[in-house]
Amino acid sequence: SIWDTFTQRRPGMIKEGGNGNVAVDSYHQYKEDIKILKNMGLDAYRFSISWSRVLPGGNLNAGVNKEGINYYNNLIDELLANGIEPYVTLFHWDVPQALEDKYGGFLSSQIVDDFREYVELCFWEFGDRVKHWITLNEPWSSSVGGYVNGTFAPGRGASSSEQENDHPAPALLSRCSPWQSQSISSNGNPGTEPYVVTHNQLLAHAAAVELYKTNFQKSQNGKIGITLVSQWMEPLDGNSKADVEAAKRALDFMLGW
After folding, report:
1. What does the pLDDT read at residue 16?
2. Record's Gene3D superfamilies (predicted)?
3. Which domains does the chain have, with CATH numbers?
């Protein structure tokens, strides 16, 4: 996925040059992880399906990775056997690199059809047991991190010099963590790309929800939604119309993203 490419090409973005090749190795140790969850008394577990793990080329024409399908089947079955309900996120920022190379990932509306194809595969394969689906994780985070400041994959955004010129207090940049100062890429347009990406993410979300509600929900009896992230904004002066409107506008630009 684009996160594999991002962390391997720019190892300074993760502490000690880490990446997701092995990480905590839950791929091999999921049974031990589930035992820990059960011992903690937890009854639900949220995890993400990696799009490129089940469809390495991003769509069905490029082939299905049966090993990936088997892994998620085993994980879901083990969770349920231990009384733990799976909450499954379908997209957690990891666009298949093949689609990023082909048309720019979420910069192109072409991704909506490929995403629909991917989630349909997931509904067919796992929907008999998964009753809680999340289409996207925090579209605001991936749009801003990936296309404004370059801290997330694919690492696009303003150049360092551009950001310094636009920053209200450039001296503060010297206090940033090392990964923050090296994260900004000269590729992309932070004035337009985050809006394009978010627009296409929301189209993909809508396509997935419509597909599930039309073709799967009645027989599988599940629910589907989205995960959003936001700070909460309050007006500095609740009696000031300008402050109230500013707080609403700030919420629109984060919670409403």
Report:
1. 84
2. Glycosidases
3. 2-252 (3.20.20.80)
Q: Which residue has the tokens 């390495």?
A: 56
Q: Report whether pLDDT(139) > 90.
A: yes
Distance of CA 176 to the CA centre of its chain: 24
Mean pLDDT of the chain: 91
List all residues 6 or more positions away from 223 whose beta carbon is below 8 Å from its beta carbon. Answer: 131, 132, 133
The whole-angstrom separation of Cα 133 and Cα 8 is 30
Neighbours of 203 (CB within 10 A): 16
Over residues 17-44, the mean pLDDT reads 95
Q: Within 13 Å of residue 172, how many CA atoms lie on the same side as its CB? A: 6
Q: What is the mean pLDDT of residues 184-196?
A: 84
